[in-house]
């Protein structure tokens, strides 16, 4: 045996003794082993320990030392705890081998206690950007080696550990990421939740993750079992305290505060992966971005099963524990959101009496098809479910009319193959009652939970203190959820995004991994896709057999070949299909008698309430009519009669007639006795009411019975009317046998008094104003549903401001409500009593008062009635056009039509009257104010117009100035500042002229030359607007443009000038002169780049000019160029090449430049991406100059044009020759004139 093996064995035994316990934690043991092996790999040896060199044969025996088993508790600092949570004394070795995660666990074999989880300081330790794994990531933190160095004071081990410490400090210090998973649940609330062994499940999952390099890459996982209070009211408060205790959360188990927990996690930006939350609103990514389900939503599975069996009427029973009460409530809400008819949700007391009362409620509901039990399953020891099933059996409810469905089995994979359950093994009653139970659980086809747990025990990963049947299958759900979060963390690490809760929730798509006992898959949307089984018994044994399989990936229920065994041979009845058809309303399960009874009761209650409110309102109205500031019924205590002698002409003759049987002396108000007599209700109609004068419109003599509801409603309606052209109703006077309508007193009297007063001369403006007031008043009355029926000049009063107001509205209605006889009616009704009085049209303005009075005074009453009874001719007044415009007279005649339905409404009358007045305001006060304001408004309008004109001219001047000069120069000149010359280091200039412009001008009229230059330069100006250039000037046919001035643009000036030159050359290729369209317009272009000075020269017609040798050189480049060519100087070529924009340059060679000698110049022939066509430069013959246009070209085109014009004007040969010779006489030399012998064609050819 070599010395290294002996030293390794001795060190291992020594470490084992230092811990002072025969068991070690698995990951600590592995880290010890790796630490020792690393020393072997480095070529060193372990120091000898006296007394430790036992009989060791090989290094393999290292693995035979006592290995740790799970089920032990450990403090947050890594110290091992005994089952009673007592902490052992900390040792140097345990300090050295402290893991990178903290563990807290519960021992299931002992009495459950709520562990105190110590807070930790870091959730995410920053990692390095390196993608390679840390070579010593399996080792503890370097600081933990120091105690061991003190333990072994000398020897090779100290040297090796020092080297390992240095190696771990440098490359690996930033690699370790601690991710602690918080397992939230009511683990200490009852023994069945504790049977899930959350600490053991979490520790097993964390060990598996940390040992898997594909999951723990650059991340170390830890866990913390977090106790959820048993009361829901305190659960949220406790969850707030978990903020600093975990990096992500598995749970909570209580769905009552899932929404709040998800919102808190959102605020903390930590992921929360629950398995028991059922609310569909939690799947909204916008509201809950850090929320993700670690398994399928249980209510979605229930809905699939109920839909398959068509069981729509559901009941829910829960135990009295808060966690199950909230579960039942949330399940009911979720099923109702799916359209299920949840008939009741009952919270059962865990006593025989409470269970019987709950089951009695189920018995009353005959339509119940399934009852969901929110409580612990009896198969894992649920006492409440056991009592409920036994009581249901005793009450003979196990008859197949409905089924029980346990809810908690949806949350885990329940073993069913060769599985025994001690809770129901020896209970025959419970066995027969369980035949009415349909158990839905997660499918685990390859390995059941018990088998998976047994294998973990055999591997030594969990303690052997408990049998698999004593562990709740919820153990596997906790394990799977932690593994689910680990895969999400791994996905986030791979993607390179920030480790946040939102990113974890978004990186759960398309997962596929092996869970504790079954595989877990997710879809592309992140939904967990698990298969579920419906398990059933045969009624005699507890052998759970699969009958149906639920595939949540495609939401389908598949029959497995074995029917469900129901107690009586048949199952619950199927409900109508409408319950499961979207958008269809079902009436099934509705008690029609109860519904009709409730409907009838509601209607009766509404009718009674309406009647009561009506009576109360009537009583309140009656009180308001005689009391308060708005009372309507008036007596002598409310009004004071005054002597009306001061305004005797304002009293209506009609009102004096209504006094009936009074004497003539009483009716006459013009006698001195009446003026001097005291005012009483017998001789006066004018009163003082609330400090203002009011008018009493007396009703005919007769007894006023009482204020009935119809009269009261009428008074309320009249009281509410408010319009400037309607005389307001103030109240109804009834006292001393006098009944009268009280209205506002108008000092000008009635319209009849005003028209009969010869002292008052009214022009058309006043008349039209009064007419418009009348139309507006009647229009308002008709909008309020009031028909006047007594419209005449006596019922139109005028106040002191010459505003006409309609009065006596509602008078006939008051008489009708009290059954008084009518004293007036319309002519068509008086002639034909069968006509309906209400058939009168809205608009019935009467005739002129003067004309009607003449008819009344000069014709006896019988004669008038006779004329009305036996037309024609119709008894209508004759109105002269001098009294009113003809349009107004025509409108008046339309209102006299015999058929009321053909008369215009007041809406039509208002519109026509506005047209008659041409839209002008006819109100008297408005007219006077308009005349006074006209002068001031005209003056203001004149000032405004002048100001606008001045502003327009100013804008035109500024625009013209900015077109002639740069904006900066123009602004300086406008403010009177001196424009200083400005030096520019580097600018690009463009020069061009027209080839042969002198020849073209010699053969054109001056106006034609102007048109040519205007058309060409307009084309150029449109092109330069698309580039960052400045047009300097045009002199004759020369066109000068610069870029880089007056605003510098870096090196882009050369590119802008080059692009503009290519666009101009392309446009010139298709340009045509108006007067010589066949003569091509060829231009030469020259470009040069260099420094220059700019400035404004002169005071008269100032110009912005450029000075310097650059201007001269650019002009020389143009003059030495060729037609249809862009001649570029070498300085410009250099800048274009630096820009590297793909300009195509062709070397011309050395060219003689005037004043510069010979220099190399270039042709610019295009640019990458430039697709516009360029004209083809003409080929110059030997001796032909490039600076002019050949006369032959103009002559040929002129001759051809002359021939065409001659043929178009006349076919006569003589005239054709005469005009052709006249046209070509402008050409200096004509070589040959050829006339073919053709009667219809003449061809002139110029050689």
Architecture overview:
- It is a single chain.
- By secondary structure, this protein is an alpha+beta fold.
- Among the domains are: 172 residues, no CATH class; 333 residues, Response regulator (Rossmann fold), CATH 3.40.50; 214 residues, Nucleotide cyclase, GGDEF domain (Alpha-Beta Plaits, 2-Layer Sandwich), CATH 3.30.70.1230; 58 residues, no CATH class.
- The chain has 40 helices and 33 strands.
- The strands form 8 sheets. Strands 26, 27, 28, 29, 30, 31, 32 and 33 form an 8-stranded mixed sheet that branches.
- It is flat and about 120 Å long.
- The N terminus is likely disordered.
- InterPro entries: A/G_cyclase, A/G_cyclase_CS, ANF_lig-bd_rcpt, Cyclic_nucleotide_synthase, HNOB_dom_associated, Kinase-like_dom_sf, Nucleotide_cyclase, Peripla_BP_I.
- It comes from Gambusia affinis.
- This is Guanylate cyclase.
- It is an enzyme of class 4 (lyase).
Mean pLDDT: 76
Shape: flat
* Low-pLDDT segments, ≥5 res: 1-33, 35-153, 166-175, 646-676, 833-860, 1203-1211, 1225-1235, 1237-1242
How much of the sequence is in beta strands? 5-15%
Distance between the termini: 121 Å
Membrane topology: Single-pass type I membrane protein
InterPro entries: A/G_cyclase (IPR001054), A/G_cyclase_CS (IPR018297), ANF_lig-bd_rcpt (IPR001828), Cyclic_nucleotide_synthase (IPR050401), HNOB_dom_associated (IPR011645), Kinase-like_dom_sf (IPR011009), Nucleotide_cyclase (IPR029787), Peripla_BP_I (IPR028082)
Protein name: Guanylate cyclase
Family: Belongs to the adenylyl cyclase class-4/guanylyl cyclase family.
């Amino acid at each position: 045996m070599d010395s290294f093996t002996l030293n390794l064995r001795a060190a291992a035994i020594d470490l084992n003794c230092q811990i002072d316990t025969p068991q070690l934690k698995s990951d600590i043991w592995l880290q010890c082993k790796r630490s020792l092996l690393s020393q072997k790999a480095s070529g060193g040896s372990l120091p000898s320990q006296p007394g430790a060199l036992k009989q060791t044969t090989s290094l393999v025996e290292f693995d035979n030392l006592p290995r740790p088993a799970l089920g032990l508790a450990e403090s947050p600092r890594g110290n091992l705890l005994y089952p009673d949570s007592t902490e052992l004394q900390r040792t140097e070795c345990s300090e050295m081998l402290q893991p990178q995660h903290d563990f807290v666990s519960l021992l299931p074999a002992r009495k459950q206690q709520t562990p105190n989880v110590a807070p930790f300081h870091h959730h995410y330790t920053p990692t390095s950007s390196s993608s390679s794994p840390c070579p010593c990531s399996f080792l503890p933190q370097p600081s933990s080696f120091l105690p061991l160095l003190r333990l072994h004071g000398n020897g090779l081990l100290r040297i090796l550990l020092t080297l390992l410490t240095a190696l771990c400090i440098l490359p690996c210090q930033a690699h370790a990421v601690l991710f602690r998973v918080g397992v939230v649940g009511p683990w200490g609330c009852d023994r069945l939740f504790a049977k899930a062994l959350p600490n053991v499940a979490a520790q097993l999952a964390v060990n598996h993750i940390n040992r898997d390099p594909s999951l723990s890459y650059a991340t170390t996982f830890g866990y913390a079992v977090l106790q959820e209070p048993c009361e829901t009211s305190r659960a949220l408060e406790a969850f707030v305290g978990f903020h600093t205790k975990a990096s992500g959360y598995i749970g909570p188990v209580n769905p009552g505060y899932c929404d709040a927990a998800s919102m808190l996690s959102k605020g903390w930006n930590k992921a929360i992966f629950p398995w028991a939350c059922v609310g569909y609103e939690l799947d909204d990514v916008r509201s809950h971005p850090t929320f993700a389900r670690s398994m399928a939503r249980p209510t979605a599975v229930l809905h699939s099963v109920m839909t398959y069996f068509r069981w729509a009427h559901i009941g829910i029973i829960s135990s009295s524990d808060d966690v199950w009460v909230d579960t039942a409530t949330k399940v009911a809400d979720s099923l109702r959101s799916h359209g299920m008819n949840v008939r009741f949700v009952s919270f059962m007391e865990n006593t025989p009496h409470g269970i019987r009362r709950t089951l009695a409620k189920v018995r009353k509901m005959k339509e119940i098809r399934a009852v969901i039990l929110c409580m612990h399953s009896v198969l894992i020891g649920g006492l409440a479910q056991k009592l409920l099933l036994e009581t249901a059996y005793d009450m003979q409810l196990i008859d197949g009319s409905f089924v029980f469905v346990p809810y908690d089995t949806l949350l885990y994979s329940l073993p069913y193959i060769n599985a025994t359950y001690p809770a129901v093994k020896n209970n025959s009653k419970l066995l027969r009652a369980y035949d009415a139970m349909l158990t839905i659980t997660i499918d685990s086809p390859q390995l059941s939970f018990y088998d998976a747990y047994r294998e973990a025990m055999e591997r030594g990963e969990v303690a052997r203190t408990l049998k698999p049947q004593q562990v709740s299958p919820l153990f596997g759900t906790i394990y799977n959820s932690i593994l689910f979060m680990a895969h999400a963390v791994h996905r986030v690490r791979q993607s390179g995004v920030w480790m946040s809760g939102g990113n974890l929730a978004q990186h759960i798509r398309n997962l596929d991994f092996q869970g504790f006992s079954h595989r877990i898959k997710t879809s592309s949307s992140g939904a967990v896709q698990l298969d579920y089984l419906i398990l059933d018994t045969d009624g005699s044994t507890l052998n759970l057999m699969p009958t149906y399989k639920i595939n949540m990936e495609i939401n389908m229920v598949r029959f497995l070949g074995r029917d469900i065994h129901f107690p009586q041979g048949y199952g619950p009845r199927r409900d109508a299909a409408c319950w499961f058809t979207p958008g269809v309303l079902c009436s099934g399960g509705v008690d029609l008698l109860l519904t009709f009874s409730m409907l009838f009761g509601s209607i009766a209650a509404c009718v009674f309430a309406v009647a009561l409110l009506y009576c109360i309102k009537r009583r309140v109205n009656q009180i308001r009519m005689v009391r308060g500031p708005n009372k309507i019924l008036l007596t002598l205590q409310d009004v004071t009669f005054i002597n009306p002698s001061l305004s005797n002409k304002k009293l209506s003759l009609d009102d004096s007639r209504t006094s009936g049987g009074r004497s003539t002396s009483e009716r006459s108000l013009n006698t001195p006795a009446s003026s001097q007599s005291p005012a009483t209700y017998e001789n006066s109609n004018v009163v003082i009411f609330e400090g203002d004068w009011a008018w009493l419109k007396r009703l005919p003599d007769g007894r006023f019975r009482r204020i009935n509801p119809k009269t009261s409603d009428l008074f309320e309606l009249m009281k509410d009317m408010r319009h400037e052209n309607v005389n307001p109703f103030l109240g109804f006077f009834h006292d001393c046998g006098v009944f009268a309508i009280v209205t506002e007193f108008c000092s000008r009297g009635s319209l009849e008094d005003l028209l009969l007063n010869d002292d008052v001369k009214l022009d058309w403006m006043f008349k039209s104003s009064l007419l418009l007031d009348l139309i507006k008043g009647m229009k308002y009355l008709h909008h309020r549903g009031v028909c006047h029926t007594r419209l005449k000049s006596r019922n139109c009063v005028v106040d002191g401001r010459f505003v006409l107001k309609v009065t006596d509205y509602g008078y006939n209605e008051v008489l009708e409500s009290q059954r008084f006889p009518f004293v007036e009616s319309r002519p068509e009704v008086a002639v034909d009593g069968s006509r309906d009085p209400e058939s009168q049209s809205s608009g019935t303005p009467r005739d002129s008062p003067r004309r009607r009075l003449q008819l009344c005074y000069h014709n006896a009453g019988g004669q008038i009635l006779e004329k009305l009874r036996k037309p024609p001719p119709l008894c209508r007044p004759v109105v002269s056009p001098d009294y009113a415009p003809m349009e107004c007279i025509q409108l008046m005649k339309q209102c006299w039509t015999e058929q009321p339905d053909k008369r215009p409404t007041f809406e039509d009358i208002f519109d026509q009257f506005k047209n008659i007045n041409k839209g002008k305001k006819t109100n008297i006060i408005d007219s006077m104010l308009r005349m006074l304001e006209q002068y001031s408004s005209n003056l203001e309008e004149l000032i405004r117009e002048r100001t606008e004109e001045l502003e327009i001219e100013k804008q035109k001047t500024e625009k013209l100035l900015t077109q002639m000069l740069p904006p900066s120069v123009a602004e300086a000149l406008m403010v009177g500042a001196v424009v200083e010359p400005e030096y520019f280091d580097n600018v690009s200039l463009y020069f061009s002229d027209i080839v042969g412009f002198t020849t073209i001008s010699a053969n054109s009229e001056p106006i034609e030359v102007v048109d040519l230059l205007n058309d060409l330069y307009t084309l150029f100006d449109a092109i330069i607007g698309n580039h960052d250039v400045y047009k300097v000037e045009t002199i004759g046919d020369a066109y000068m443009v610069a870029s880089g001035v007056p605003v510098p643009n870096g090196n882009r000036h050369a590119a802008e000038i080059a692009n503009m030159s290519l666009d101009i050359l392309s446009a010139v290729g298709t340009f045509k002169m108006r007067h010589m369209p066949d003569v091509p317009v060829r231009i030469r272009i020259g470009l040069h780049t260099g420094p220059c000075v700019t400035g404004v020269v002169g005071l008269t017609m100032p110009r912005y000019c450029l000075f310097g040798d650059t201007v001269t050189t650019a002009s020389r480049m143009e003059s030495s160029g060729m037609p249809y060519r862009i001649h570029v100087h070498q300085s410009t070529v250099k800048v274009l090449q630096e820009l590297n924009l793909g300009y195509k340059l062709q070397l011309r060679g050395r060219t003689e430049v005037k004043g510069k000698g010979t220099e190399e110049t270039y042709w610019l022939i295009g640019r990458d991406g430039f697709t516009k066509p360029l004209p083809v430069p003409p080929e110059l013959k030997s001796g032909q100059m490039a600076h002019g246009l050949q006369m032959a070209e103009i002559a040929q085109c002129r001759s051809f044009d002359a021939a065409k014009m001659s043929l178009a004007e006349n076919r006569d040969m003589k005239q054709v020759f005469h005009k052709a010779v006249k046209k070509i006489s402008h050409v200096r030399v004509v070589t040959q004139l050829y006339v073919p012998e053709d009667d219809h064609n003449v061809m002139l050819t110029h050689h």
